[in-house]
Amino acid sequence: MSEFSSAAILGTGSFGTALAILLAPQIRELVSIGRDATVAAAINSEHRNPRYLTSIALPENIRATTVLADAAGHPLILFCVPTSVTRKTAETLAGIGLPATTVLVSCAKGIERDTGERMSEILREVFPDNPIAVVSGPNHAEEIATNLATCAVIGSDDETLSRRLQDLFTAPHFRSYTSDDLAGIELGGAIKNVYAIAAGIAAGLGLGDNAIAALVTRALAEMTRLGVALGGRAETFAGLSGVGDLIATCFSVHSRNHRVGLALGHGETLEEATNSLGMVAEGVPNTLSIHDAASKAGVRTPIIDAVHSILYQGKPAARAMHELLNRDPRPENA
Question: What is the pLDDT of residues 11-31, one digit of tens each?
Answer without folding.
Answer: 999 999 999 999 999 999 999
